[in-house]
Amino acid sequence: MPVLVALGLVAPPVFAAVPEAVVRVPGTPAPGPEPGPVGAGRKSVGELLGELSVLYQRTEEASEAFNKTAEKLKKQRASSRKAQSRLARARTALERERARAGELARQQYRGASVGLPPAVQMLLSSDPERVLEHGHFLRRAAGTQAATVRRVTDGRQRHATAAKRARAAVKRQEGLTERKKKQRDKVRKRLRNVEKLLSSLTGDQLARLHALERDRTDAAQQKLVSSGALDPSGAVRRSSEQGRKALDWAMDQVGKPYVWGAEGPRSFDCSGLTSQAWRHAGRTIPRTSQEQWRRLPRVPLDELRPGDLVIYHRGATHVGMYAGAGRVVQAPRPGADVQVTPLATDPPLGAVRPDKRRT
After folding, report:
1. What region does 325 belong to: left with phi over 0, alpha with psi -120 to 50, or beta?
2. N or C: lower Cβ tally within 10 Å for the chain?
3. Hey, how many other C-beta atoms are within 10 angstroms of the C-beta on 83?
4. Which SS3 state, helix, strand or coil, does residue 324 take?
5. Is 271 in a helix, a strand, or coil?
6. 342 near 219, Cβ under 8 Å?
């Protein structure tokens, strides 16, 4: 982030909220309404860190909501294309049946006797026996006419249904497009709030924020290990072949910047990194952290193995990939790069395992 570079922080820290159950530092505000972009004033470093933590979390919530809508819009566009294709086929079929019906009408007009009863045709014909011999052709013509009428009627119904579905698909697409635009604007507004708060801080305040954030992370990590929720030995469990490939790919992205809504190859957001890592390992997983938490098999933190995904915050708004030894590789937040951090840089909600092999 430019303001951090200007203030002399080459590698900006990950300002992360830590739950009270993990570590409690005096002066830390409890999560509440989103703070406004105010200056440092007389606030303590702990208060400033808490405010930044809330700002970053709210920004990531908005980013993941944007990602979710973007995925829905992508699917809806495909659905709209299919609906338009079905409508085009129904229109072509209807026009074809109408053409057949028109040809029958022209045939009747050219030979009016086709529609007369057989007895009348015999009286009017100079060759009554010919009329009798070709009576079955008359019956076949009548049957063809009825079948054509049925096909035209069915074609009209299919066309009307396809047109209705196509209109509904376009309307849903327009609604999602508008929602995506509003969510994009919301993310940009929250990023501006972060920038305003950071730009109001002095270099000394930023240095103390960095130190406090590091101390909190260390305390949270130790608390997590002491609770038994994380393997204290730091042993690396054997991962599946896919899990190892996903982790190797994610590690290759270290140093690339976090950009909200990005999924590579030059930048990533949190779920963009994890979903792309597993895609390169041959496994398609949901795009957003919420859907990854909702749809993938869950595993206890003390059974983590490399490649598993660690989900953060009660709203499942952040995700990182377990790298072993109590650490994760993640795209942490705006202004930071993809990096390897202690698992407890954010409050973990739980973990999921994308591949099918559980042991």
Report:
1. left
2. C
3. 21
4. strand
5. helix
6. no
The answer to whether residues 94 and 158 touch, using CB atoms and an 8 Å cutoff, is yes
Question: What's the predicted TM-score (pTM) here?
Answer: 0.57
**Encoded tokens for 328:** 């994760």
How far apart CA 334 and CA 262 sit, in angstroms, is 11
Q: pLDDT at position 198, please?
A: 72
Task: Tell me which DSSP letter residue 29 carries.
Answer: P
Which residue do the tokens 């305003």 mark?
A: 196
Buried b (16+ CB within 10 A) or exposed e, 57-75: bbbbbbbbbbbbbbbbbee
Helix (H, G, I), strand (E, B) or coil at 117: coil
Residue positions counted in the chain = 359
Measured on CA atoms in the order 39, 5, 251, 192, is the torsion positive or negative? positive
Residue 15: φ, ψ to 5°: -80, 105
Residue in 25, 8, 13, 9 with CA at minimum distance from that of residue 52: 13
Residue 328's H or E segment, with its range, is strand 327-330
Ramachandran angles phi, psi of 348, nearest 5°: -70, 135
pLDDT digits (tens, 9 = 90+) for 100-150: 767 666 666 665 444 555 555 544 555 655 655 555 555 555 566 666 666
Q: Is 231 exposed, middle or buried (0-12, 13-18, 19+ CB in 10 A)?
A: middle
- The reported pLDDT for the residue numbered 46 is 67
Using a 10 angstrom Cβ sphere, with 0-12 exposed, 13-18 middle and 19 or more buried, the burial of residue 172 is: middle
| Rounded Cα distance, 313 and 223, in Å | 17
Residue 229 half-sphere exposure, CB side, CA atoms within 13 Å? Answer: 16
Residue ranges of alpha helices (H) inside the chain are 2-6, 45-110, 118-124, 128-133, 135-199, 203-226, 241-251, 270-280, 289-295
What does the pLDDT look like over 279-303, one tens digit per residue? 999 999 999 999 999 999 999 998 9
pLDDT tens-place string over residues 323-345: 998 999 999 988 889 999 999 88
